[in-house]
Amino acid sequence: MPNWVLLVEGYFKAVRKIQILLCCVPNKGNTALLWLENWSGNTLKNRFRQLFSFAKKQKCSVQFFISQEVSRIFSIPMTSHAASQLAGLQVLLNDRHMNPDINDTWTYSWGANFHARKA
């Protein structure tokens, strides 16, 4: 295997480890990934595993998810368990106080935070 492949693999492993230390707070939702960001100690991919298996776009932003019809986001029909998880996800998103005027932020587990700017 070429050295550059090992280097790239190592980079992505390091990024995944860093992501574990971050907690996402979506506001605009344009830079926060719905399924892959750490929300309250877990990713939504892990929290809603059955629903995630029906997702057509598994790397979508929170903003994209909120602005689309369910049939565009998920393969339909879905199981009753996945449908129940979808209802839970919709409640979770509706309960979040997102502000479209503020950039998404991430907080490190030790308390420091930062935000992303979309070009």
Summarize the topology:
Elements: H1 3-20, E1 22-25, E2 38-39, E3 42-43, H2 44-47, H3 49-52, H4 62-67, H5 70-73, H6 80-95, E4 105-108, E5 113-115
Antiparallel strand pairs: 1-4, 2-3, 4-5
Our count of domains comes out at 1
Unreliable segments (pLDDT under 50, ≥5 consecutive)?
A: none
Figure out the total of helices.
6
Strand content: 5-15%
Derived structural class: alpha+beta
Determine the oligomeric state from the structure.
single chain
* Cα-based radius of gyration, to the nearest Å: 16 Å
Strand order of the largest sheet: 1-4-5
Largest sheet: 3 strands, antiparallel
How many DSSP-defined strands?
Answer: 5
Order of SSEs, N→C?
A: HEEEHHHHHEE
> What level of helicity do the residues show?
40-55%
Distance between the termini: 36 Å
Shape: globular
Mean pLDDT: 84
Structural summary, described in words:
There is one protein chain. The protein is of the alpha+beta class and 119 residues long. The protein has one domain (24-110). The protein has 6 helices and 5 strands, in the order αβββαααααββ. A 3-stranded antiparallel β-sheet has the order 1-4-5. Strand 4 (105-108) and strand 5 form a beta hairpin. It starts with a helix and ends with a strand. The model has no long low-confidence stretch (mean pLDDT 84).
